[in-house]
Specification:
By secondary structure, the protein is α/β, with parallel strands linked by helices. The chain is built from 25 helices and 32 strands. The two termini are about 60 Å apart.
Length: about 800
C-alpha cells in the first residue's frame, strides 16, 4: 500500500479534515523510520531522511529511540516486568515520584497517561481542595482538548464551553485586566499557567504578570497550577521553565518529555501541604502507574542528569536564537519576532496581506502561510517543522537536546531561502514542488501590482463574489504563477479547492456620474468554472455552497449592505435562493446582464447591417434563468426565435414557449436540441452553463452572423475567429464605468475600467441605496428595464468586446 492509499484510508477512517488540509498544503508525508533527529519517508524506491525539528510537539527531548531508553525498554520486556498489576504496590511509580520530588520539592505525584489527562486530574483536585468552581487561565493558552482541559484552551473551547468549569481568561499584558479579575475572585478554585505559551505562539509569560500572579495566589491562598507539559524536563534551560520566572507552583504538570519519547505518561505533582488524601483513592486509571512507563521515565531522568540536557538546551538554544535574530534583522518584513527559551523556540512570520502576490495574500488571510512555509521546508529542504496550533504564523522549533548545531544551521539557511521567496513574491519557488516543479533560485516578482485596498470612507458598501473563469486567468490574478503551466495551475487549484475559503482582494470607491460613491470589495473564491460545473453534475455542491455562504458572511461582517453573486456562484446558490445569511441584500446581477446583452446584440446588428426583424435569433441554453429572459424580450423583435435546449419536450420547455407567446403574441418560436440548427440563424445569443466551448465553426451559417456570447467560460470556441473572421463575436455582459478607468479585478480577463454587468448591478444597488434583494430568483423583463434605467442614470454604459480581434470600446 503506497503513501497515497494510506492517506486516503487515514482521511476516510481517522481524520477527514486534517487529511484534507495536509494534502492541500503539502504536509501529507508518511514516515516509515525514526532515529535521533531524523524521520524517513519513502519517495519512489528510496527512503529519504528528514530532519525533525517538530520533536513530537516537545515530547522528543531525547531524540527518536535514544539508545539508553531503548535498552531499558528491552531490559524491562526481557525481565517480564509487570504491566498490568493494579491494586498492588507499584514500585516503578514510587521510585519515579521520589526522583521527581528530589528535583522539584516535596510533592505527592499522581501519574496519568497523557498531558490532557494530567490537566483533568489537576482540575478535579483543585475543586476537591477548595470546593470552588471557577478557574483562571491565560489568553491563548493551550492545556488540552478533553472536556475539562478544553475549557482552559483559548482556541478550541467554544463548542464545549457550557459543558465544563467556568474559566476566566487573563490578558498577561494588561494590568487593568488582572485587577478586574482579582475583584471577582471569590469563587476562584485555581490559576493555570504555562510559563511559555506553547501552542499560543511560543510566548514566554511577561515577568510582571508572573510576579503579580504569584503574589496574588499567596495572598489569597489560591492554588497556582503550572503546566510544564511542553516546557518541562529541561527543554528551556532549567528543569522547569517556571524556575526562570521565579514562580513557586502549588501543582506541577508534566508529560511529553517525561516519557523520553518512548512511553505515554503524565504526572500531576501536588504540594504535600495541599494534597487531599481522598484524591489518591477517587482518582485512578487502568494504565497509569505501570512499571514499564515509570521505569523508562526514571531512566530518562537519569540520562537527563548524566548528559546535562538542561544546560545543553540552554547553550544550543541561545546560539540558535542569535542566528535567527540575525535572520530577522535581514528580513524584517518576513520575520516578525523570534521568541522562546532554550530549545523551545518560535519564529513568527509577518503576515503577507500586502504582498504583490495575491497567492501569498490569500495564504496569509486564510492562516495557511505558516503551513505553506513548513511544506516548502519539508518538500524542498527535507526539514520537518510545523506551526503552533493557535498562532499558525509561528513556526515551532523543538528538536531534541542532542541536535547538532550544523543541522540547525541548515535549518536557518533553508528558512533564509523561504524568506527570500516571500520577499520576492516568488510563489513558484515556494509552492512549485506541489505541482512537480523543481525550484532553482528565487526570482523577483516583487514589483508593485495594481491592487487597491481603500478603507471605506462612506457608509454605502457592497461586495461581489468572483472566481476564476479558467485556470489560465490565474496569471491575471497573480503574475508570479507564470512559471506554472496551465495544467500545473489547475492542479494547484484542485489540490486546495476544499480547504481555501473566500478572501477579500481589491477594495475601491466607485464613482457615479451623479457624484455618488460606493465602497466596493471584491471577494475571490480560488475555484474555476470547471470545478463548479463538475460539482453541479455530480450533485456535490454543498462544499462550494459553504464557501459562497462564508463569502456572504464576510461581506456582511465588513459592513456591506449588498452582495453580488458572480459567475457560477449564482448558479450554485440557485439565483440567490440558497443564501441563508441575514442582514444583507443579495443580487445575481442577471437583470443588468440581460439588459447589456440586448444592447450589445442590437449594436452589433447595426454595425453589420443585419436587420433583426428579418432574422432568426437562436438562444442557446434557453432554459436558463438569463437566456429565457433574453428569449422573451427579443421574441417580438425578430422574424423567428429558436430555443436551443437539452430536452425540447420537457414540461419546462413547453411552459417557457407558452410564456414567450403570452409576452409577445404572434411570435414565431421553434425549439431544438441540435446545435447544427444554428446554421439557419443570423443571430445567436449564447448563455449556457457549459464548462467549455460548445459552438464551433461547423455550427454557423455561411452568411454573416452575429454571436453574442455572455457565458463564462465562453461558449464560442476560439477556432471560430480563425476559420470565420467574418463572424462577429461579441461579449455582451460587459459595462464601462464612468470613472475608475484604472479599475481591474484580479483574475477577470477585462481591460481596466470595464466590469461584468453582474458586478455593475451590485455597485448600482449600492449607489442607489437599495437594501432589498436585486436580481433574486427568476429574472423578469421589468427588472431588466429597471436596472438599465439605473445604469443610465449613473453613467454605466455598454462596454462592447469583439472577442475575435480583442477590440474594446
Amino acid at each position: 500500500m503506497d503513501d497515497r492509499e494510506l492517506l486516503e484510508l487515514w482521511g476516510l477512517y481517522c481524520r477527514p479534515a486534517i487529511a484534507r488540509t495536509m494534502r492541500a498544503v503539502g504536509l501529507d508525508a508518511v514516515y516509515e523510520r525514526a532515529e535521533g533527529d531524523y524521520l524517513w519517508r519513502r519517495q519512489g524506491d528510496e527512503l529519504v531522511p528528514v530532519l525533525d525539528l517538530v520533536g513530537g510537539y516537545g515530547a522528543n527531548l531525547f531524540g527518536h529511540y535514544h539508545p539508553d531508553l531503548v535498552a531499558e525498554e528491552r531490559r524491562l520486556a526481557d525481565a517480564r516486568v509487570p504491566f498490568l498489576a493494579q491494586a498492588s504496590v507499584r514500585g516503578g511509580a514510587a521510585r519515579l515520584a521520589k526522583a521527581l520530588a528530589e528535583r522539584v520539592g516535596d510533592y505527592v505525584t499522581i501519574f496519568t497517561n497523557s498531558g490532557a489527562e494530567t490537566v483533568e486530574a489537576a482540575l478535579k483536585h483543585a475543586h476537591l481542595e477548595t470546593g470552588k468552581l471557577t478557574f483562571w487561565a491565560v489568553k491563548n493558552a493551550f492545556h488540552g482538548k478533553t472536556l475539562g482541559a478544553v475549557q482552559l484552551t483559548w482556541s478550541y473551547r467554544e463548542p464545549y464551553e457550557d459543558w465544563g468549569p467556568k474559566v476566566r481568561f487573563l490578558d498577561p499584558d494588561d494590568p487593568a485586566d488582572w485587577e478586574a479579575a482579582a475583584a471577582e475572585a471569590d469563587d476562584l478554585a485555581a490559576v493555570f499557567l504555562e510559563p511559555i505559551l506553547g501552542e499560543g505562539g511560543v510566548r514566554p509569560l511577561p515577568q510582571p504578570f508572573a510576579d503579580w500572579v504569584g503574589a496574588f495566589c499567596r495572598e489569597r491562598d489560591v492554588p497556582l497550577i503550572v503546566d510544564e507539559i511542553q516546557s518541562g524536563m529541561g527543554r528551556t534551560g532549567s528543569f522547569l521553565a517556571s524556575e526562570a520566572l521565579g514562580i513557586d507552583p502549588d501543582y506541577v504538570l508534566l508529560s511529553k518529555g517525561l516519557g523520553g519519547g518512548m512511553v505515554k505518561i503524565g504526572a500531576l505533582m501536588i504540594r504535600r501541604s495541599r494534597f487531599v488524601e481522598e484524591f489518591s483513592i477517587t482518582h485512578t486509571s487502568t494504565f497509569a502507574e505501570d512499571d514499564r512507563s515509570c521505569l523508562v521515565s526514571l531512566k530518562a531522568l537519569e540520562v537527563l542528569e548524566r548528559d546535562g540536557l538542561p544546560a545543553r538546551c540552554a547553550a544550543v538554544g541561545a546560539r540558535l536564537a542569535e542566528k535567527l535574530e540575525a535572520l530577522r534583522a535581514r528580513f524584517p518584513e518576513q520575520i516578525k519576532e523570534v521568541r522562546g527559551h532554550g530549545l523551545m523556540v518560535g519564529v513568527e512570520l509577518h503576515d503577507q496581506i500586502d504582498s504583490p502576490s495575491n497567492t501569498l495574500r490569500m495564504l496569509s488571510d486564510q492562516k495557511y502561510l505558516g503551513y505553506a512555509v513548513s511544506a516548502y521546508l519539508l518538500n524542498v529542504h527535507r526539514i520537518r517543522i510545523v506551526p503552533t496550533l493557535s498562532q499558525p504564523r509561528t513556526l515551532r522549533v523543538q528538536p531534541s537536546a542532542y541536535i547538532a548545531e550544523a543541522e540547525l544551521d541548515r535549518f536557518v539557511r533553508a528558512l533564509e531561502q523561504a524568506c527570500e521567496a516571500l520577499r520576492c513574491a516568488d510563489v513558484s519557488h515556494l509552492l512549485g514542488f506541489g505541482v512537480g516543479l523543481t525550484p532553482n533560485g528565487v526570482s523577483d516578482y516583487s514589483a508593485p501590482r495594481p491592487l487597491k485596498r481603500e478603507r471605506p470612507r462612506i457608509a454605502k458598501r457592497v461586495a461581489f463574489i468572483g472566481h476564476l473563469v479558467a485556470p489560465e486567468h490565474a496569471y491575471h490574478w497573480d503574475p508570479s504563477l507564470e512559471p506554472f503551466g496551465v495544467e500545473q495551475v489547475e492542479r494547484q487549484i484542485y489540490k486546495t479547492a476544499r480547504v481555501i475559503g473566500p478572501s477579500i482582494y481589491d477594495q475601491v470607491h466607485v464613482r457615479s456620474e451623479t457624484g455618488e460613491e460606493v465602497h466596493f470589495s471584491f471577494i475571490g473564491l480560488y475555484l474555476t468554472s470547471a470545478q463548479f460545473a463538475e460539482a453541479l453534475e455530480a450533485r456535490d455542491t454543498d462544499w462550494i455552497m459553504e464557501k459562497v455562504e462564508a463569502a456572504v458572511e464576510l461581506a456582511r461582517d465588513e459592513g456591506c449592505q449588498v452582495i453580488g453573486l458572480g459567475g457560477y456562484s449564482s448558479i450554485i446558490a440557485r439565483n440567490g435562493k440558497r443564501i441563508r445569511t441575514p442582514g444583507i441584500a443579495v443580487t445575481t446581477g442577471n437583470s443588468l446582464t440581460v439588459g447589456m446583452g440586448l444592447l450589445a446584440l442590437k449594436r452589433a446588428c447595426e454595425d453589420t447591417g443585419i436587420d433583426p426583424a428579418q432574422s432568426t435569433l437562436a438562444v442557446v441554453g434557453a432554459n436558463g434563468n438569463i437566456a429565457s429572459t433574453y428569449a422573451m424580450m427579443m421574441a417580438g423583435e425578430v422574424a423567428e426565435l429558436m430555443l436551443v435546449v437539452r430536452d425540447p419536450s420537457s414540461p419546462r420547455t413547453r411552459a417557457q414557449v407558452e410564456a414567450i407567446r403570452n409576452y409577445a403574441p404572434g411570435a414565431k418560436v421553434t425549439v431544438t436540441a441540435d446545435l447544427a440548427d444554428l446554421r439557419h440563424c443570423q443571430l445567436i445569443l449564447s448563455a449556457s452553463n457549459a464548462a467549455g466551448s460548445i459552438i464551433f465553426p461547423e455550427h454557423l451559417s455561411p452568411d454573416p452572423v452575429v454571436v453574442c456570447d455572455i457565458s463564462l467560460p465562453a461558449d464560442v470556441d476560439p477556432s471560430v475567429e480563425l476559420v470565420r473572421p467574418d463572424v462577429k463575436v461579441i461579449q455582451g455582459g460587459v459595462v464601462r464605468l464612468p470613472y475608475n478607468d484604472d479599475l481591474r479585478f484580479g483574475g477577470q480577463p477585462l481591460e481596466p475600467g470595464f466590469i461584468y454587468a453582474c458586478t455593475a448591478e451590485t455597485i448600482l444597488m449600492g449607489l442607489e441605496g437599495i437594501r432589498e434583494h436585486g436580481s433574486y430568483g427568476a429574472v423578469t423583463p421589468e427588472g431588466v428595464h429597471r436596472f438599465l434605467a439605473v445604469a443610465e442614470k449613473h453613467g454605466f454604459r455598454l462596454g462592447q468586446v469583439q472577442t475575435a480581434q480583442g477590440h474594446w470600446r
